[in-house]
Amino acid sequence: MFKKLSIILLFFIFSQTLFAQANNYLRNTSLVNNKLILTFKYNIDNVKPLALEGNGLVKYIYDIKNGVLPKSKKISHYQYKGIKTFRMGQFNKDYLRIVIESYSRNKRNYSIVGKVLTIYLNTSSSIQQKVYPKKIIKSKKSYAKNSHNGKTIIIDPGHGGRDVGALGKGIYEKAITLQISKRLRKELQKRGYKVFMTRTYDKYMSLKDRTEYANARNGNMFISIHANAAPKGKPKKNYQGFEVFHLSLENSDRERNNRAYYKGKYYYSVAAYKKMTSSWKIATSRKLAKKISSAVLTKVRRGYTLNDKGIRRSDFWVLLASKMPAVLIETGYLTHDKELQKLRSKRYQERFSKGIADGIDAYFK
């Protein structure tokens, strides 16, 4: 009898250990000196490191086996000299992924002690040694006297991950918005702007995460990129063209907006809400929308037809909760055959992106 009880007890302990390993929740994160420290609920099983180099950056990836990411945990707000961004997300059910984008070839040193994973960041003088090829370094120096140098632009590719957005002939909005956003980032960087993107790959981000990302980086403007679709039951051929939205509280959803500062889901202060909806922000956002709309029409119509649906007002969350001039651009309709064909074209995307960049230039001038 005693042996049977012992066997049952050992089996229970062993099964609980296996269950714990498969649900190893991240409990805490901290950035102390040159160490990114992550503490989990249970001992860490294994970490798979990987380094990818390109576009002037080295992307260091750490996949933590059986790691689970609670919704409340994030590292995107951390800042460290020589590091562009810190990110983490649930890569799949078996791995939690940490991504560190660095301007230098750092040593990928890390250590595991029980429940704690410590990632060591480079502190040597080589932190300033960029990965960029020399010709790109020269190109960047040529913008030193550019009047836009120091201006920070936040680009927000709409949708992503499980949020696919509009659909046209098997093409998801989330893919088109990311392609155009990357081309816009490249064009703006050529012109001397500092650019951040709320997402650089196919991942889900809440609206709140997008605006908090922008606000944490003190952007000078917020550009949200989207694509449209004809309403259900309506003739698809009747809907085409692009439009630019800016913030307006006229006829807005007061109940939805009030969540921005009432102690509820979003936890913003009254002072923060007033800044988000100030007359200055509304006026500058309207000015930005006009500049971008005019510049896109001018640039795109040199090679393509483009229907102008005008400048519109709305209280979309990304326009409301950003603390800087903000616009949302509907680049076209995926449900319109000819417009979808253009939106998928590399040449059209580049021309459209240059039009947006021209509008941003005009705004700052």
Describe this structure in words.
- The structure is a single chain.
- The protein has two domains: 23-128, Immunoglobulin-like; 134-364, Zn-dependent exopeptidases (Aminopeptidase).
- The protein contains ten helices and 17 strands.
- It has helices at 2-22, 134-141, 173-190, 207-216, 254-258, 270-276, 279-300, 317-320, 337-343, 346-364; strands at 24-32, 35-40, 47-54, 57-65, 67-68, 83-92, 95-102, 110-113, 116-120, 152-157, 167-168, 171-172, 194-197, 221-228, 242-247, 308-314, 326-333.
- The protein has a six-stranded mixed β-sheet.
- Helix 3 packs across helix 10 and helix 7 (279-300) crosses helix 10.
- Residues 11-20, 124-145 and 261-265 have low confidence and may be disordered.
What's the rounded overall pLDDT mean?
83
Instruction: Please trace the helix and strand order, writing H or E for each element.
Output: HEEEEEEEEEHEEEHEHEEHHHEHEHH
Distance between the termini: 87 Å
Which residues sit in consecutive blocks of at least 5 with pLDDT less than 50?
11-20, 124-145, 261-265
Give the CATH topology of the largest domain.
Aminopeptidase
Features:
365 residues; alpha/beta; Immunoglobulin-like; 10 helices; five-stranded mixed sheet; 2 domains; globular; Aminopeptidase
SSE map:
Elements: H1 2-22, E1 24-32, E2 35-40, E3 47-54, E4 57-65, E5 67-68, E6 83-92, E7 95-102, E8 110-113, E9 116-120, H2 134-141, E10 152-157, E11 167-168, E12 171-172, H3 173-190, E13 194-197, H4 207-216, E14 221-228, E15 242-247, H5 254-258, H6 270-276, H7 279-300, E16 308-314, H8 317-320, E17 326-333, H9 337-343, H10 346-364
Helix pairs in contact: 3-10, 7-10
